[in-house]
Structure formats: structure tokens, C-alpha cells
Amino acid sequence: MSKHEHITTAQLDEIRARKHDLIAIRRAVHEQAEKIAEHTKYRKQVLVCGGTGCTSSHSMKVIEQLETSLKENHIDDVIIVKTGCFGLCALGPIMIVYPEGAFYAQMTPEHAKTVVEQHLVKGGHIVKELLYQGTVHEDGSIIPFGETPFYKKQMRIALRNCGLIAAEDIEEAIAAGDYAALEKVLTSMTPDDVINEMLASGLRGRGGAGFPTGRKWAFAKASQGDIKYVCCNADEGDPGAFMDRSVLEGDPHCVLEAMTIAGYAIGAHQGYIYVRAEYPVAVQRLRIAIDQAHEYGLLGKDILGLGFDFDIEIRLGAGAFVCGEETALMTSIEGHRGEPRPRPPFPAVKGLFGKPTILNNVETWANVNPIILKGAKWFSSIGTETSPGTKVFALGGKITNVGLVEVPMGTTLREIVEEIGGGIPGGKKFKAAQTGGPSGGCIPAECIDTPIDYDSLLAIGSMMGSGGMIILDEDTCMVDIAKFYLEFTADESCGKCTPCRIGTKRLLQLLTKITEGKGEPEDLDKIEELAAHMKQSSLCALGQSAPNPVLSTLRYFRKEYEEHILEKRCAAGVCKALMTYYVIPEKCKGCTLCARNCPVKAISGSVKQPHVIDTAKCVKCGLCMANCKFGAIVRK
Amino acid sequence: MENCEACGTPEQAEKLKAVIEESKSTPGCLMHILQEAQGIYGFLPMSVQKTIAEGLGISLSEVYGVVTFYSQFSLKPKGKHRISVCLGTACYVKGSDKILSEIEKELGISCGECTEDGLFSIDSCRCVGACGLAPVMMIGDEVYGKLTPESVKGILDKYRKEENA
Which of A470, A535, A542, A572 lies at a C-alpha separation of 20 to 30 Å from A586? Predict the structure, then answer.
């Protein structure tokens, strides 16, 4: 198709019809797969995850080996599809074979060869020992992966196409439903219809603050001006959060489509996607998607021949957390230091280049297509009354099933941790979940039955944030975690306003003092007073929310702070300055191994006699304890 | 602010000039040009920043202000193999701080520095998004996951051997 030729809505239908069976087989794997399989020339489809998690564990080598082995075995009726994230990153690289839906995990090139030779050949059978063992029943029968605890409670709206379609193929995206909402909007809805639908859906911004998306759009539409902008925040800066990246890697077209719809609704013709440069795969997929959308006439002038113009440019971030804040992000797109501006004026009135602008984050955009197609009523029936829909979480830390999960709002933390997440590894105890990254807080074990939605999380002193969820176990020191986040915000504070620049620094000093065993009881009062000032007087959300990790840990784990200060003790054994190593004389055999390994010669004793550690010399490296074969060295 | 010896080759200067010419009419192009320039030179020495300021007709202080604001821009040269240890939360709770100190010990430099032979430089980063493999580090474009302090030396030796081969 040439660059200037537009496809029509009829051609969209043609693409959908042509690719329908391929996608339907994957979707309907548990229902009528065999029946549909007869209509496609491919006997089997092999979907391999090409997201960052799996490519980091070398899924591309798996694909290469599959191609080689298929050729060697003269198999030409099997198609390999490189998709986005399947979600279960802990077990990557993952590959799924359809129509059976066989879920292979932790693949290596050797495994790929085995699967080709035993499963993908004509008359082959599933290689059970290479499957994700959660899908193999005790009696040897295979459980569909959708029925496993990890997937069962999930509901995929934003991630609907991630792991389902070839991420770099616009035709598969179209066949899976992308651009159908744009078609509907341009052919049968007025801009006001679109905004009313968004308002009625109750969708709230998924970037963290939870502002109603429809209202944002309505404000921007009401603003006067012939030039307006639509922006996408893909500067996912919370460490441990990778929801937006997964959407961009798995279904980039859903973002382009949604931005175009918003452009139509508010009267904008130019969009910008501000994406982290640390996401090379996502940037690459976006570039490919934008090129393909141009080629198919789904971006650019006269989209679908229906008279609406819209274009999108990518802008790369350069590593500044504050650029996730909306005004800072726009300043950065303008090419300046990414410092926030005071609001009002709000971006809907005066945003990018001084023009009315709307900014939504990737996951918010990913919800637009289903809302337009299935209706606001359907969407608002999911989740809770004040937080309709679903939320994607990046589950990480001390949890078995590290990965990406999407659940209806109102799902409890317990369901996420114990059922979907598969619990804490190593038989350890759940201590807390950290949500909202450096702006959020900790949910302690006693609140594990809290339903996860915007308002419940605020009520217990945390926040939804963009969706990072880090699980902490009994080995985590809460004072140390609070300090970790303060180090982050102190480092990332842009320095424009004093409460944030100096406040984060001073808070960090107080926390460092406590973890070094020099804390005094009045430090806790100082922390609370300083935190209150920062929340009130910082210019942007970075400074206003920076004290949250400290305040929420102080609220639920005050005892730990007090132990650090009054008893000079870190129960989790994390804060080095508060630890002492010593030898239990009854257990020590006098083998001298510890003394030989000690880097500072702090251990003395004769052969076959109990040794002693000189605590004044000890640097608390832990080498002696790691080396002792008799468990004679302990840390207190 | 130390002055930079006219770093780089005529080819690099030519490339930079082309990038400036091509982008200078786009609003907000400074970041893009700096990213390209860093791609060409590996870092952003003062002479390169001066060239960009002159090319865009803006002050050097404005360019320098942007360069020092964003953590990805570097005023110092980096090693041939750039080590980037993830200190994101998921990696941190799995002990990435210990990985970083092991690398620092092994190479005898601190985070943010470059070894004398120019072979390695160490930086920390916030989440490469491979949380399933935590703790992770990147060397160049290669991701190393599920690290232990003991595994670090073997990985670095691989690069050292390549160099000596």
C-alpha cells in the first residue's frame, strides 16, 4: 500500500476478515479451537513473548532456534508470532502453542528444538515436562493456563491484546479490534458524544492521581484556541513499575488510536508521546506502529478518508523522574529543563507550547477503545462504584509470580498476593505491600483484606500510584525502605522549590541517622513536622508526596522506628550499623575458617579452640557467618 | 567547569552539524539534538555543547542547564563496556546494593566512574523493567539477571578475556 493511499472502512473489514481465524484461535483456545483451526492454513501457531522481561532472558534465541528447527524438519505450516508480555515474567521466556494453548515456560534454545521435534511435527504431542508446571495436574492431565491461579482472577481490558497479537503487525492489531473504535467515532459520533461516553464511563487517570479522564477532555474541549495538543505520558518513572511499557511493547496501536480519538473529541491535530529512553524495545515498537499507521492512512491527513487529520510524534525522555509530572513533562517536550510549573493555569487551558493540552498515561489510553466499543455502561459495571474498570499492577519483590497482572478494581490485596502472586517464596511471612512507588506508601499485613481502589488506598495512607506493587517480607526493614525512597526523591527533586529540595534532603538525613543507630526519640516528631510542611507547600506532586513512604511506615511500623532509636536494634537484620556478629562458643569447633576469611582480621583464636570476634574491628560484612560450616556465628 | 580539548574526529563534527541543521526548526529540538550528540561522541564535552548552543542561537548556559538536569546526559566519557546496575525497588529488595558494591570492589572504582584503562564504567539506573530477573544489571545492551555477588566476577572476566584475546 503506498504512503498516500488511504484505506477505507471496507478495507479495514477485509483485513479483519482475513486475519479473523488466526486471532480467534488464540482467543477461543479453550472453547472451539479445533473447529476454527480448519479455516486457516497454519496447523499450529507458536506465540513467543518479545517483551523486555522475556527478551532479557533471551527469548530471541528461542525464536531463532524455532525457525532453524522448523526448517530442518521441513515444517511449513507452523507460524511463529513475536508478541508482547504474557504477564508471568518470573517464568520467562514463555511461549504458547495454539490451538492447544500449551504454555511452555523458562524456554532455552535446546527446549525449543525438543518442542519442534516432539510437538510441532505432524502427529506430535505436548512435551509435558517443559510446560509451566502450574498447568500440569497431579494426574498428568493439562489444565488450560486461563484456569491457573495466576490468570484465573485476572480480567484483561488494558492488556487485552498483549501477548495475543504480533506486536509489530498492524493487521493483527486491526483484526484484534484496534482502530474499530476510531472508525466508530469518525463515522457515527460527534465530539460531544465521545466526551459524554468517557464521562459516563467514570474512567479515572491510571497514572496515579485518578482524575476523571472525561472531565479532563471536557475542559480541553471547552478551551478556546485553534491549536490544541494531545499528549501521552509514557515516562514510567516509578522504579519497579512496568505496566505502561508492556502495553507499548504488546499493543502500541491501541495508544495511537485512543490519542486520535481524543484529538477528534477536543479538536486537536497533533499528539506527542513522551517515552522513557530506558525503554528501547517500547520506543522501537512505537516507531514501527506509527510508520505502519501512516502507511495505512490511520494517522496523518484525512484518516480513513473521513476528513479528520491527526499526527503523532515521539519525544524521548532523558532520565528525570519529575518529568512524570504533567507540567514538567510538557516543559521537557518543549526542550527545557523538566521543571514543573505552578497550576493553575491547568494544561487543559494553557499546556504544551502555551496551548490547551490533555495528557493521559498509557494505561488510561489503553482503556479508551473498549469504552467506545462496548459502552460506558459495560465499563462502569466492572470494578467499584467510585473506581470503575480494572487496574494493571507490576507485581515484584518477594513474591513467587513476579509479573504483570490486571484485576478488577476492588480486588483485595490478599487475592493478589496469595492467589495470583502465589505467595511469598521460601516460606517467609508477608510483611507489607508497597504501592505508588516513591509517592506511595506501605500496606501492612493487617490491611491485607483492603479492596484495591483509589479511595480505599488513600484512606489507609497509601495511594494507587501508577501500579508498581512491591511485596516485602519479614527480611525487609521498613526504616530502610523509607530511606531507600527518600534517597530516590532527594536525588530526583528538580530543585525548583525549597520545600522539596531541602525537605527531602533533611528527611533523608534524619532517616540515615536512625538507621546508623544515632537516632533520638524527638527525631520522629521532627520527621512528622517536616513532612507536613512539605506536603503543604511543595510546588508539585513529587515534593507533596515524597514524605508518604516515611509517614505510612511510621503509621504502621512505628515500633520498628522505636527499636532502631531506643534499642539500637534492626530486627530484620538490614541496617548494618545496628548489627553485631558473635561466636557461640559451644558450637565453634575452632576450624579457623572464619578467621582466615575475615578481611579485617577481627577474629582471633587458636586451632580447635572457640574463636572470638572483636566487635570494634568488625566491619559487619557477614563473610564469617556465610563461611561457618557449624552455624556457630550469629548476627544480633 | 573544565574545558574540553577539541574532542572527536572531523566525521563526528560533520555528523553533529547535520543533526543540528536537520532539527533546528522543530520546536523543542534541544533534547533530541543532545541525545543524538551523545550517541555520536559517547558523552557531551563542553566543545560539543558550545557547537550546539551556537547552532541553535541559544546561550551555552541554557544548553548546560539541560545537560545537567537529565541523568542520561554525561559530561564525562564512559567506559567501553557501560555497566548499569538496577537500583529499582524490586531489585533493591533482592539485594542489588550488594551487587553494586561487589562490582565497585572488583573494579576498584565507584559508581559514576570509569576504570583507568577505559574498559568499564559503572552507573546505577532505576528499573530496566526486567523485575522478574531481579537483581539485574546491564552491560551495554546485554541484561544479566538473577545475580549474586559471587557471579559478578565471572561476568566481568568474560569481557576482560575478550579484550585480551
Answer: A572
